[in-house]
Amino acid sequence: MIKLFSLKQQKKDEEGSARAGGSQKKASAAQLRITKDLNELNLPKTCNTEFPDPDDLLNFKLIICPDEGFYRGGRFVFSFKVGPNYPHEPPKVKCETAVYHPNIDLEGNVCLNILREDWKPVLTVNSIVYGLQYLFLEPNPEDPLNKEAADELQSNRRLFEQHVQRAMRGGYVGSNYFERCLK
Amino acid sequence: MADGEVQTLDYQQRRWHNIRKLLERSGPFCHPDFEPSAEILDFIMNSCKVLIVGAGGLGCELLKDLALMGFKKLHIVDMDTIELSNLNRQFLFRKNDIGLSKAKCAVEFVNKRVPGCEAVAHHCSIQDLDEGFYRQFHIVVCGLDSIVARRWLNGMLMSLLQYNDDRSLDQSSVIPLVDGGTEGFKGNARVILPGMSACIECTLDLYPPQKTFPLCTIANTPRLPEHCIEYVKVLQWAKENPWGSSTSLDGDDPQHVAWVYEKAQERATKYGITSVTYRLTQGVLKNIIPAVASTNAAIAATCATEVFKLATSCCTNMNNYMVLNMSEGVYTYTFAAEKRPDCIACSNTTRSMEIESNATLQAIYDKLCEDKGYLMKSPGITTIINGRNKTLYMSSIKSIEEKTRDNLKKKITELGLYNGADILVADVTTPNTLTIKLKFSNNLDDDMGR
């Protein structure tokens, strides 16, 4: 136990005096943690990151180019925004590439449990990368965000596959236009 | 004793009668080092500086409690202004005060009401105040509603710690943090001795995660009125951008709330869901849990008592985390939260590295990989220069490696580093990002005071 009272009898510095003088700003806990996460990022060979500003580790892009499954040959860009409350709160992740996918809607919202309700501070950026990669390998029609795509995947796999291909080549699926995203 | 004080002596005697009983007599619960004396009252009245962070529900209580206990050198900081909905429990404010600074109104009220009190208000955010400001206090007590703010304050107090040459903690640099929090009928109070006991970051997983619903549920199978409101908040707002794409949803803007309310109602009707109300909309948007005045009073009283104990040693402190739950009956329990040996905030005792002032970044990198004390694999090195983060070198990410590779050849002084600057180093070999202070070995005319 600390002997505070005896220590505290000494007079404290007056505000701003002594050692102070424009000292270096301290890194926030979020900053320390994301630096650690990124330095240990172990990307699968289908993934890559891009940092528009290498000094800003809180905002970056993840590019996934699946090499198997429905989305093989496509190139999908996700934006990551890491907030000051990381890792208490997950990063905000959006898909910037228009994609015909049961778990990604046309505004780029992604339905991945660890990005919302199942996020835990022990998870890392790497966990999210693997989660997103998994979405392309195993689209999950049980948790639909694009309901049309999900219903189609369940009822007519062939047609779904054709639509995915058409969207990736650039074209209309139903009334929605998709930009070409093949590599 | 000055003449003016003689007149009030009789009143003073009676006023501090009860406090004196605690401070001028010994007892079985006293701290082992406690020595009863009249000086202690003098200390809390004339020397002991306490910072109260937050002038809301807990802050009003804390300011009142501490002022009545005899503390005079009180400072209180809050960036908020008074709103109508505060008045039911933030009892230092009146209807006429709406729109004014919480910190200033609270101080004005208490200084007028409690003779001798010299509280000082700071109407700004905690991040606007620097190390020099925080260092002047003996004790910090906070009543905040935000985890981000708690973590920031925790980090600030950790950064004020000084270590001796043998890496032991210099106890005179410890500023205890007493933290209170409430949510409805539940609350907690805790005592943190930075560098010595569990800190905010050690126990971060104790904070419940924000209540969220799976995105697919709110998009496709809403069942609750909350699902409808979340739908409008998360999906529909970004799609329709009713005030243009540059305006983000503001839960304090009545027009925004009204828009969300209307759209959520439409959606609820479509799915046969009832009871979307304006109040609920407000609640979901701002994550409001109704504040209960009696919970605030109980938690603030606990915190104020702990501050009193810390300042006087007249009683040992709680060890170190108390929970209070009044939602069914009254339940309370106190336990010792444990310090995490790998805590990102409080285990990060700054190390120092000797380096020549004309060395290159490569020299630092090599030292990190080859020196016995480090033996790192692929250290990522960043720093903060003029308040901005700067990535010096990081090999594990290709795009960053390419853009920072040239830095290795540069002199560290060219990169903006100086004697006494901190670099942050992350590596697989350490559980956390390390803070390393550079010490120029051939430094004659140092710029330590920078």
Total count of strands of chain B: 13
Distance between the termini of chain B: 44 Å
- Distance N to C terminus of chain A: 63 Å
Oligomer: heterodimer
Helix percent band of chain A: 25-40%
**Shape category of chain A:** elongated
Strand content of chain A: 5-15%
Order of strands in the sheet with most strands of chain B: 3-2-1-4-5-6-7-8
- As a whole number of angstroms, the C-alpha radius of gyration of chain B is 26 Å
Mean pLDDT of chain B: 90
Helix content of chain B: 25-40%
User: Taking all residues together, what is the mean pLDDT of chain A?
Assistant: 88
Q: Give start-end ranges of low-pLDDT stretches of chain A.
A: 16-22
Extract low-pLDDT stretches of chain B. Answer: 446-450
Pathway (chain B): Protein modification; protein neddylation
Family (chain B): Belongs to the ubiquitin-activating E1 family. UBA3 subfamily.
EC number (chain B): 6.2.1.64
Protein name (chain B): NEDD8-activating enzyme E1 catalytic subunit
